[in-house]
Amino acid sequence: MRTRFLTKLTNGEVEDYLDSNDIIFVPVGVTETHGALPLDSETVLAEAIALKMAEVTDGLVLHNLPYFFAGATPVGRGTVQMSVKDGMNYLDKIAKSLLKQGFKRQIYITFHGPAYITVSGMVRDFFDETKTPILYMDIIKAIESLNDLSFHSMEKFNDMAIGAYDILGRIEDVPLNVPESTSVSYDPNKVMEANRTHPANPLGKLAYQSGAVGYYFDKPSDHMYTPLLKTPEERATYAKSGIAAIQEIVEKLDMNRVVKSIREVDDFTQKNSLEKYGDWLN
Fold this sequence. Notes:
Elements: H1 11-18, E1 23-27, H2 41-57, E2 60-61, H3 84-101, E3 105-110, H4 115-130, E4 135-138, H5 139-145, H6 157-167, H7 188-196, H8 201-204, H9 232-253, H10 255-281
Parallel strand pairs: 1-2, 1-3, 3-4
């Protein structure tokens, strides 16, 4: 296809696509303080991963969704905070519109820690109302499920974030020579210590991340450390490493199998669950 991004297609191209397929990836982002990276880095990361998934499954991507629940980062005044309820309602409207237009296989993608608070509830409520299963993929959790990756869990996060800008043709948006400040830390040990000594830390172990207790970071730089990029060559090195990591994750998640499983869940729902219990499930 000319592009995988829904909003960059003409209506005729979308009509033609829906004649043969019905898959759409919806990367759900956030706009928040993120060290020396741009505020939309976790949005861009979700969009790049969604694009790669769409390419291997013949899907489309509905992007430009950068304003949702940020979590503990409103201490940085660049953060845009959205309530969980408002985010859920907004996504619900989008999901129902997409279903009405013909996109029955919807896959929501995030790479933001607290995003599950918004997306998981929407996906479940949507199913109970429409009886159509849609999928939420929390890439952070998905990475943890892949035991055969060539890297450990989240150690490539900064590489992948920078690589995502390159995938989307926006590598120049990643700035160079950003000075260390209350918003930027280049020392992972400082960030780890600040989070370890935060009073919310022991409570956060009792549930899932921000879902355990409401709190804010002490200062913006406590959110996450980022690498000090001095030259375009250093930036390109990180991007190359990150693109390789993204490709590896997408390949090992086997997205064609994932899409097949969504169809199987739908078939089971329609032919088994609803046939048996439809009188009170509807």
